[in-house]
Amino acid sequence: MGISELRHMGARGLGARVPINPLGRELVRAGAISRRDATLAEMVRRHCDTSLDRILQAEGLATEDDLLEAHARRLASNRLSAEDLARAEIPETGVDPRLLLKHGVLPLVSASGAPVLATGGPESLAALRPALPYTLERARAVMAPRHAIQDRIAAEHRDLLRAMAEARVPEIESCRTWGGTMNRRLRLTLIALAVIVALSLAFPVAVFGVFAFWACFTLVVSAGLKIAAYVAQTSARPISPPTTAPAQPLPKVSILVPLFRETEIAHALIARLSRLTYPKCLLDVILVLEEEDALTRQTLAGIDLPPWVRPVIVPDGKPRTKPRAMNYALDFCQGDIIGIFDAEDAPEADQITLIARRFQQVPREVACLQGILDYYNPTQNWLARCFTIEYATWFRTLMPGMARLGLAIPLGGTTLYFRRDVLEELGGWDAHNVTEDADLGFRLARHGYRTEMIHTVTEEEANCRAWPWIKQRSRWLKGYMTTYLVHMRRPRLLYQQLGPRKFWGFQAHFVSALSQFLLAPFLWSFWLVLFGLPHPLDPVLPHGVLVGLGSLFLMVEVLNICIHMASVSGPRHRHLMAWAPTMHFYTPLGAIAAYKALYELIFKPFFWDKTTHGLSVAARGRRISDGGFDLSGIKLEPGHKGL
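Predicted structure:
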């Protein structure tokens, strides 16, 4: 609840009952705010885990300059401008710059030679003091803009912070060492391909039979996993919402939104974020920008961002990937919960409130909450319909079912929320893995943490063009291949960390998923048997066996269609049920993407094939229609100057 809501409730006579914070009294004395607003802000603070500064700024009642001046007067301290910070001398303290960024505090040398601590507020400094060396124990505070402090820290430690972002995950759990073994890996791959080609020429039927057998085996494994997940999901009781709100105050939540060449949807993004009902004083949205992406930076420069939205510019480096950018931006966050949105996402308005309350209810071992992803353009064309069916099956049936079975799950790339301390403990994201979300899901499981699915929906844009779809899917599959190879470096250790159930679930999911895409043509060959045509294995297998294998293939296809139809049988997707049988013709695109992924795994393992957003008819139309993107219909927070 914000100050504007309390005003609308007609709260009266509060001044005598609610004592005002010293900062509030100073602002009232200076005439910056009214006593009534100071009282209402104090009421909000009692229900939100944040400072009076953020409440007043988020509500548009006080500017950062007002607050810095008030702090300086109250503490008999000096006030520094951004220009003063840029010129100030920084002593060598040995403090981790990531800690300084997190708390927004910068040690300086004053004109008299004494150490001082530049801070945006005394609460941030109080949180950092226990980690400071004894030489700074008695250092006085000077007030300065938080963004300017973080900019100076980032500039001063540019190379170190960049290197940390690239190598934050422990080496044993990262794929970053692959860059140094490219020639060796290429030689081994070429030798393996040469052997396969030679064997195929010498023993074509035998090689075909081996691949066909493995394709059928993984088909059965995949079908078994899907059946188990479907039964677990449909037979389980839904999680009941709490009957009463928890007594704990709501926590601060930081949302990372990586942007790269997203000029088409930048305005719409801010509009969608403005609809979130979570108290804006607790919301810290960081737009993560690449240093070399001048177009997106220029676009955002023309937008009057709300006080709870700020850009962070990532120094250029290699690899230029989303996880590297998020690793860098993580230390700029102020929240205890870290969420991830993509540029085109449209989350439900109450999503973050549901997430915050759920984290307060579950044990600490639940370190991640994964929301449901859906599409707002499912009727764009056949490809968009199939993509929507696939996502509904994955996020509404299979992932929840796997979680209920006690298996580790590969995360989706957005609508993800983490406990910040756990995320930092694990080293954030692997900057070199192009499917960093799937990798992180299994790293969480390896270290004893769980992911829970939560019923809150984020809409995004379905990739509805064939080649962009293949490019996107090839990146995901390359990341799957990378994740499997990284975690299987030491199988015995992985088994010990995951336990039998999660270990074999990991094998069943990754091996069957990758095999089914790569070996799909061998499965399709059984259509020849079903249609009474000659099959390559006729010389070595009895016709009855081939018919049995063909029947198995057909049964699994029918099973998949049934699960797809069940997943889209709700009111939201019922119109897609008739399209579920066409999913068989959707699979060949995945096979093409898999071969592209395999090629890139060998020759370009860290290449990030970016997905272009904002191209669908639905995306363009919603900018001017139903309020999903329309800026003119946005009701902004009090004090916001518009977009």
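Summary: DSSP finds 26 helices and eleven strands in the chain.
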